[in-house]
Every structure is written in structure tokens, then in C-alpha cells.
Amino acid sequence: MKKTAIYPGTFDPITFGHIDVINKALKIFDYLIVAVSDGNNKNYLFEIDERIEIVKRALFTDSKIKKKKLKVISFKSLTTALCKKHKSNIILRGLRAVSDFEYEFQLAGMNRKLNKNIETVFVMSDVANQIISSRFVKEIAELNGDIKKFTTKSTIKALKNKLK
């Protein structure tokens, strides 16, 4: 049976930390669905359609990841409902630092309460990417800082165009 994992997130914007987690997951799972959240509780810089395109360009064009093991979709539901829809019982979450763990641990517990068949798998990004967050990338970009070490060329271009 094919092991499919769901990697949910806002990806506003995608960073090298996200891409690192995705590359590691592709070595572990047969198939990965990168699920871009369109939830109402956040103020996104990019609209959902923009984020989907940015993620696709970052993964398939800039990072040259093969499409056969990976799909990028949007979702506006509970992650557990998304898992059911795609017949997956694995939620993938990236960890950067110890400070992420408490929130992620609670989230994993809530998902487990919603569906006892769901397992959350945590993957650490490499040390070089652990400091990167979408929030910091946006803030540095807004202040005209150099973000080449944090995200892909096409994502940088999208940020520059958005922040003009």
C-alpha cells in the first residue's frame, strides 16, 4: 500500500526550511501532498492562488523536484478531513526549534483526538534552515533586505513584485 503524507501549511511564502522538509519527506513516503491552507484566521500577504503558484515554481522549477511523487493543492478544511479525502493517515510537520515543539505537540494531539488513525510525523529541517520562517522572510523583504539565503529565486521575485 502506498504511503501518502499530507504536509499542511500556509507557505506565505515557502522557504528553504519548507523545501528541506519536503525533500526529506520524499525519501520517507511514497507520495506527498503539499496542502496550502486557505483558512480564514490569518492575514496572508499572498492570496491562495498566488501561494499555490509560488509553491509550484519553488518546488518544480527552482528546486527541480519531480512531480510524480508530489502534488500541491489548496484546502479550507480541517487537516484530518483532508487526510480522509486523500486516504492518508499521516500528517507531516516540520520542526525548526524547541519552541515549535509545544505548539506542534498540541496540534498533533488535537488531530489525533479528531481521528485516532492519524499519525503526525515530525521532520527537522537542516541546521542551516532552522532559523528561517516565512514571517521573517516577509519582514526582511519589506525592508529591502537580502533574502537569497532563505528562499528560491522565483519566490524572491514574487515577493518583490508584491511589495512594490
Which keywords apply here?
single chain; 164 residues; alpha/beta; 6 helices; 43% helix; globular
Q: Overview of this structure, please?
A:
The chain is of the alpha/beta class and 164 residues long. It has a single domain (4-162), classed as HUPs (Rossmann fold, 3-Layer(aba) Sandwich), CATH 3.40.50.620. It is 43% helix and 19% strand. The chain has six helices and five strands, in the order βαβαβαβαβαα. A five-stranded parallel sheet has the order 3-2-1-4-5. β2 (31-37), α2 and β3 (70-75) form a beta-alpha-beta unit. α2 packs antiparallel against α6 (153-162). The radius of gyration is 15 Å and the shape is globular. The mean pLDDT is 95.
Report how far apart the termini are. Answer: 48 Å
List unreliable stretches of 5+ residues.
Answer: none
Q: What's the average pLDDT?
A: 95
Strand tally is 5
Highest CATH level, the class: Alpha Beta
- Examine the coordinates and then state which fold CATH places here, giving the name of the CATH topology: Rossmann fold
Following the backbone from N to C, one meets helices and strands in this order, namely: EHEHEHEHEHH
Q: At the fourth CATH level, what is the homologous superfamily?
A: HUPs
Secondary structural class? alpha/beta
Put simply, the count of helices is 6
Radius of gyration, in angstroms, nearest whole number: 15 Å
How does CATH name the architecture? 3-Layer(aba) Sandwich
The gross shape turns out to be globular
Percent of residues in helices: 40-55%
